[in-house]
Records
---
Amino acid sequence: ESAALAQDALLENQIRIGCIDSLCVIGREEEALELAQILKERFTALYSPVDVAKVWVNIGNIHYRRDEYPQARLCFEQALPIFEEVGDTLSFGRVQANLANILSLQNQVEEALQRFTLARKAFMAQGVTPYVAMLDSNVGFLRYISGEHNAALHLMAQARQEFVRRNMEVETAKCEADMADVYRDLNLFPEA
């Protein structure tokens, strides 16, 4: 019976993880952070490290939205080894991508590229090609701002092809806009 109660408590708190993001959407970020702290403590007491990691990711997302990149990075770094340890490759890849985006915004290009590579490897292992394409597009942009125009265009074209194949119109348009910027930078106006 105590195992059933513990399972019920775990499920009840897992449902509340979704409330963190919902509170943020309606502008109640402080309340979301308070709930996250409570859930983190409860999941620790219930010996559920994966749920603790999910809460860390939610807290990191809040800090990311607030442009508090050092705090967001710390949160994501708390979650990463847990996902790696339990073999949750998809979550591991998502957190690596989050870290790569933060590093990109902080002009830490080399470390961002390393994180993107780890994320890409994880997404390829899971067969989630739309995520791979989004990473390729992001890496392409990093290559572009680093002056590596050919590599940028190759990655962006590769991403665009996947977006078109999957009818991802918004992502296709963003990718095409980035490609046009690269072509303009190269004075290749007909291609732009």
Note: The first helix runs from residue 2 to 25.
---
Amino acid sequence: KLIAKNENKDSKYLGPISFYKAEVYFTAADLSFNENKMDAAKKYAHKSLKLSYANEYKKTLSENARILSKIFDKNNRIDSALYYSKIYIKFSEEYNMEYDLKKIVQSKMQYEFDDILKEKAVQEVKKQADNNRTKLIYLGISIFTVLGIIVVLLLYRNQKIKTTKIILTKEKLELEKASLDFDLEYKKKELA
């Protein structure tokens, strides 16, 4: 009732809405067939088949051809049942081939996408490793530079200490010499 009420005879329903209309007609045909209303089932199946042919909906074509084949088989019209069985087989195979092809293409695209993601992840890891290596090199250079400066400062300090010790030893020796010279002069004066 709802289909008959909303049906517009002049409209071809091409485009996305035609798919839904074909599905509604198919569902009505299937329900009518299950309720053993063969004339209504045949009418809705033919309407769905017409829309499906016009828009190349292979799945709906095969489903409607299967229903029509069953209807004509129940009415003992073997030639029509055979005709629609052939249509069912043809479009069912075409639909399955297209579906399989879509799945293969989808799997291939997913595989390529995963490869791209993996490659980006590998590049990111390499970039991070390069950054870490560069940071480690700079850190190593900084540590060696600081250690070098410390070693130079320690060597300078040691050298300064040695120089100071030598100067102090020299001054001590000079003071001792001066003291000995003074003592020697004093003893000479005492003896003289």
Note: The chain has a mean pLDDT of 87.
---
Amino acid sequence: ERGQDDKAWPAAIRAKELAPMSDEVRVVLGTLALKEGQTANAKIYFEKAVLLNEYNIAALLGLADIASRENDFEKAEKGYKRVLETAPQQPEVLNLLGLVAQAKGVQDEACSLFYQAIRQAPARAPFYYNLAFSLKLDNKPVEALESFEKALALQPDIKEAYNEMGLICQSLGKLEQARVYWSKALEIDGDYV
């Protein structure tokens, strides 16, 4: 189960061969491996956890997240959908599926998923931000601006939202408003470019 760089792991974790592991323990080890940058090890732990319990949401999410990080969007999408089949009330997973659709360039699907996530968890600023970005990519600037505003109402320090709003206003020929948004981004982070 371990890779070459296993020497860095604490002895207690390396000694895991002494007893059989539950799927929950494998998920914990997979999560630790991921935090240590050991993606291959993490994938093995998550896969074995799923073999022990095909409904282990944390393991399924871990595998889907790894696939997404590796730009294997088809596999990520399949994994996130499997999680939703097991536990449908997962706004975070809907948001992640929206990000996968966004990366694949399917903005109408991304927007639909972000709207679903927002309906389940309306107080999450990142959901509105992600929706706004897809709306912008889908050439819907007015709707994008409205969604960025909602994100900022929930979390006023999203400098990227101000920057995107400035870019939208610039594309609409509203240069003065664009400068206002860019100034707000710089108020949050003076080094933001």
Note: Residues 1-5 have pLDDT under 50 and may be disordered.
---
Amino acid sequence: GTSHFNLQNYNGAIDAYRALVQNFPESEFASASLNNMALAQKKLQLLSDAADTYSKLALTYPNDPYAKDALFEVGKIKRDLKLYGEAILVLKDLEPKLPAGDDRKHEALAIIAESYQGSGDLDEAVKTLRQLSAAVPGSSPWKLEAFRQMGEIYEKKESWGDAVSIYEEGGRLSSNPQVSASFRQRAKYLRET
């Protein structure tokens, strides 16, 4: 499978990995084969198939080192396919299992919030963005991204006072002068209009 993959023969790689998993499910290479099969499916833009393969990996080999990454990939693919409810379910189940400080935990919260926005549940999106903001230190890029998205949501809801407050807080927290200025300019613009 790997030689096919390296030669960009992704269909051949999928067939080889599938054969290994079907013929030798207890092999030490079975979980890696499923992971690589999903990667090949993604290369071919077979995203639903890739999500199914990642799910199979996580369900069949739940204690495998690839399992959490596989579930994370399922959540990202479901979001990309605009299957927001499924993305939320997968990532809400996974997020508490990731250790504090793990960047995947922060990205999972961001994707959950984005999925709530995509499904039209802006209140849950803000709630999740607040959770993300609380989970990261100081002027972390994840915290600033959470503030940016909350500001945009408040603007969409025409909750101008909340938007101004969020942008001002983002401006205070950012250690990057350009980002800080951007937050403050947006707050000023909203106050003056």
Note: The chain is about 75% helix and 0% strand.
